């Protein structure tokens, strides 16, 4: 069972947990938001895939930059974020690899995969 946030840890009595599941869950929420849809945080989210899909192959670069900028600004537990495009066997899916360091552990390098599926849905693994 994944314990997410301070209140979840207090409820279970755990003092520390692996932050990776909480980071992945947060990134899944953030990367499935679109810029301009939050009045209190206008930079929250990535470019709407439907707005840039018509500009392939430049759309890949724009999405890559948007994913990186969103993670840098809205996920403070990660540092030195690098996002790169990874080719896929599925022509309808764009894949990106995210490499970053955990802020709490300078030696902790993490690697995640994001897949932008048809319709713009982002899956973080």
List keywords for this structure.
single chain; Nuclear Transport Factor 2, Chain: A; 33% helix; alpha+beta; 26% strand; 125 residues
Span of the ends, CA to CA: 17 Å
Instruction: Show unreliable segments.
Output: none
State the domain count. Answer: 1
Order of helices and strands: HHHHEEEE
- Main beta-sheet annotation: 4 strands, antiparallel
Tally of DSSP helical segments: 4
- Overall outline: globular
CATH class call = Alpha Beta
Description:
The protein has 125 residues and is α+β, with helices and mostly antiparallel strands. It has one domain: Nuclear Transport Factor 2, Chain: A (Roll), CATH 3.10.450. It is built from four helices and four strands; from the N terminus they run ααααββββ. It has helices at residues 5-12, 20-31, 49-52, 58-74; strands at residues 78-86, 94-102, 105-116, 122-124. A four-stranded antiparallel beta sheet has the order 1-2-3-4, covered by helices on one side. Strand 2 (94-102) and strand 3 form a beta hairpin. The longest helix has 17 residues, at 58-74. The radius of gyration is 15 Å and the shape is globular. The mean pLDDT is 85.
């Amino acid at each position: 069972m994944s314990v997410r946030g301070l209140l979840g840890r207090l409820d279970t009595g755990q003092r520390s947990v692996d932050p990776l599941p909480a980071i992945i869950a947060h990134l899944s929420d953030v990367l499935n938001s679109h810029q301009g849809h939050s009045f209190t945080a206008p930079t929250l989210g990535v470019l709407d895939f439907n707005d840039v899909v018509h500009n392939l192959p430049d759309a890949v670069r724009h999405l890559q930059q948007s994913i990186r900028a969103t993670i840098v600004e809205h996920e403070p537990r990660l540092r030195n974020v690098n996002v790169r495009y990874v080719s896929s066997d599925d022509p309808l899916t764009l894949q990106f690899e995210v490499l970053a360091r955990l802020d709490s552990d300078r030696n902790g390098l993490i690697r995640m995969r994001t897949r932008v599926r048809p319709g713009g849905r982002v899956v973080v693994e």
